[in-house]
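Possible regression after last week's pipeline update?

I re-ran a chain I had predicted before the update to compare outputs. Posting the input and the new output here so someone can diff against the archived version. Not blocking, just want to make sure nothing changed silently.
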Amino acid sequence: MNFRKLGRTGLNVSEIGFGAWAIGGSWGPQSENDSTAALNRALDLGVNFIDTAAGYGDGRSERIIAGVLKGRREDVIVATKTPPAAGPWPPSPYCLSAERYAEKYLRANLEERLRNLGTDRIDLLQLHTWTRAWNRRPEPFEVLRKLKEEGKIRFVGVSTPEQDQNSVIDLMRGGWVDVVQVIYNIFEQEPAAELLPTAADTGVGIIVRVVFDEGALTGKWTRETQFPEGDFRRSYFEGDRLGRSVERARRVAAELGESGYSLPQAAIKFALAHPAVGTVIPGMRNPRQAEANCLVSGLAPLPEDLLRRLHRHLWLRGFWYAGK
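New output (post-update):
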């Protein structure tokens, strides 16, 4: 396993981290035995960074992580997320940060995160979404700074809103966040324009999520794939999006040709190719997936000519653009 610095935090993190959404639920049936085995196998293979959230199974993911770490001695870095209080998701331009992330709420939610994870300090606490409507007065981060000073959290971060990832750039330039979690993959390359260079300039650590585009870039799906009720991917790939994603993934796989990289390996290596990226956090639901993902760290970087060709596979998925 290779390791990288996570921005200015000084944390030395495994470049392959453990994305813990699926072990909490919302991705179809998932046994706790498989979840525990996947996490243990990832740790055995050198993973030292785990990302979870309050919303991953209403704390179930956090509790599974706490149970596994209780029996191990490794120095593992755990990041979790606090969602905004009840209201529109994503927050609308008319929401007030003082209501959605009030100090009383943030403190109470943090205590729940601490209990679930069985610890007295969170390594990295991230706000689970944001809106640029709050950039002029980022009051929630003033509260998080106080919690940091009180020793309740080590570092402060934010997870980008899917529809407006660039909304957090002002926070980065203003010194409000230590880490940003961003969607960055072969289809979603917009962060390379400004967000990732800003991270490099400001020393903000970068966690990459959705590196497989919720599974499309693993090459496993077909146009006939069906997801069960309660599975997040059922809505993510609704309408013609599954068919279009399958076709796009097929074109990427063809681009790889005789390179020696499988589609999911190339997807991970693509994200790791940007120097601002600290860690990539693919989901791992069983030991086999943990092994396949961790193996990628030991592979050679993508050749520059292949990387340039993959740049041409960015996909502008706004409804106004057919993306053909």
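Follow-up from reviewer: compared with the archived run. The radius of gyration is 19 Å. Marking as no regression found.
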